[in-house]
Design brief:
- This is Phospholipase/carboxylesterase/thioesterase.
- The chain is an alpha/beta fold.
- It has an eight-stranded mixed β-sheet with strand order 1-2-4-3-7-8-9-10, with helices on both faces. The chain has a two-stranded antiparallel ribbon with strand order 5-6.
- Helix 3 crosses helix 5.
- The two termini are 22 Å apart.
Length: 255
Amino acid sequence: MSYSRQSMGSGSRSTRGYEFGRTYVVRPKGKHQATIVWLHGLGDNGSSSSQLLESLPLPNIKWICPTAPSRPVSLLGGFPCTAWFDVGEISEDLHDDIEGLDASAAHIANLLSAEPTDVKVGIGGFSMGAAIALYSTTCYALGRYGTGHPYTINLRATVGLSGWLPGWRSLRSKIESSNEVARRAASIPIILAHGTSDDVVPYRFGEKSAHSLAMAGFRQTMFKPYEGLGHYTVPKEMDEVVHWLASRLGLEGSR
């Protein structure tokens, strides 16, 4: 493979002073047509994401793989590890850490802000990374972060594997608040995939996330269940993502 992986050093600080870790970049081996920020799961890092992504047959995509800050995580009894935001037990009553979500969404947007205007940009992730990818997508549709600051990145595609949608309860009323917001929600393609045997983020949360997005007006939401799959990815799933991205982003050689 003629991909090159580049490390970009530590990034910005979040609002609580947690410093984002090292960012890894997988450069396209063909014409640069799209850039996707890919977000790892709880306790992982950008390096392992980049190793997975550089093996995919998508020569026109540049992958940016940041590392989350190390922070105390409620789910782990306050034990610190890399996490995009604080999270407790995944449940119907899950409290959303809006400050943490916004800080990570802003960091991701900053990584995409320097991309050329003719390059399509998107976000993807696994588990907690999928959650922040979906949160960023809702910020794109709403045109603002949870704090109200403007969100200015023009997202073109979102991939969420084995994750969940933060803020799902109030999403529909927010999207329906204006025609412009509804138009942006309807314009972005989203693919969600989830294993039916996931024992970390239960399958029903993936299914509920897809349903909540579709009901809120994200009309191009696609949900793919994987029978018997646990909390991990498999080649068949990644093949599906490759095909979907090539098609949705109109990449060369995909038609």
